[in-house]
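anyone seen this seq b4? input:
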Amino acid sequence: MDIVPEITRESITNLIINDKREDGRALDEYRDISIETDVISKAEGSARVKIGGTQVLVGIKPQLGSPFPDTPDLGVLMTNCEMLPMADPTFEPGPPSEDSIELARVVDRGIRESELVELDKLCVEEGKHVWMLFIDLHVIDNCGNLFDAAELAVMAALKSTKLPTASIVDDEVVLDKENTFDLPINNEVAMCTFVKIGEKMVLDPSLSEERVASARLNVGVTKEGRICAMQKGGAQPLTKDEIFAAVNIAVSKTKELVEYL
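predicted toks r here
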């Protein structure tokens, strides 16, 4: 359990009540954002995203495999997250934690439900061979708001991914690694994360703000403004007005976030 000194909690809460933050940002303002792609030479697609001090690295590894029985003509996405102990003293080595699993699932939901990747174009031979994309997400430095950084990193990595041309010769799959094609991308998506401190909703929380928050809301929005994912965290409830206000901000901020891509 994360224990926060009462003086720290009161200090941050009092700032938020007065529409101020420790780092001088507005309540609906992001920290500085930077995105680099093709940062892993052995991966077919990769990206590193920084939001303030938070840093996330993503690599994409494609592999030919069998499709799921109920979707014989669609490619497969699999998202895995590793929270490295060097990124945060609270992260522990070993099996994935609940936080790690939640981060991977929320990010995966945003990618999947936005129909970001044209999965039908990843089919090589219906019912037999499709491209499977393994999305490996690594938290390098946790300074708060891993969700938004991870979603941007996965998005940027997928957009940089190239696949070898595949053909069927004598019932065997033949790969031509000299001739590649861009991963078919159908959309763009971003995640906007809010936390509730006192009675205010705060965008892009720092780690100290996350520690004193009573609730969290993740909103995934496509570039057209369609909500494709939502996740509620924290013990306290959110009102309908708080959720609607957060969604409206997320829709407007998504336009800014996808421009970084």
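The mean pLDDT is 93. The chain has five helices and twelve strands. kinda curious what u guys think
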